[in-house]
Specification:
single chain; about 100 residues; mainly beta; five-stranded antiparallel sheet; four-stranded antiparallel sheet; globular
């Protein structure tokens, strides 16, 4: 099944962080990926997510303004399962040098 891709807009990268805005049309996905850094997501809109992982699928409802953190190494695909566009900011935390 082919889905439209989410739009990833780089906002900032320096020695400590990578900040990216993700915008999803209904049904859009990030594509399968693995995070190389711990990261924090902050929802800009209400986000109705389908999270696909090698272990299976789960859903998540992230209200606008809420945030969550995940460890590096997680393989997944994020899909907007809602009827409205959704957006979030992702901040990847680089290892201190």
């Amino acid at each position: 099944m082919s889905r439209p891709k989410a739009v990833a807009t780089p906002l900032l990268e320096d020695a400590r962080v990578i900040v990216t805005r993700f915008d999803f049309a209904p049904g859009a996905e990030t594509g399968w990926h693995v995070h190389g850094h711990d990261y924090v997501i902050t929802a800009l809109t209400d986000c109705a997510m389908l999270l696909e992982t090698p272990e299976g699928e789960r859903t998540a409802e992230i209200p606008a303004g809420d945030a969550y953190r995940r460890d590096r190494g997680i393989e997944h695909n994020v899909v907007n399962r809602g009827d409205a566009p959704m957006s979030f900011i992702e901040i990847e935390l680089k290892d201190p040098t």
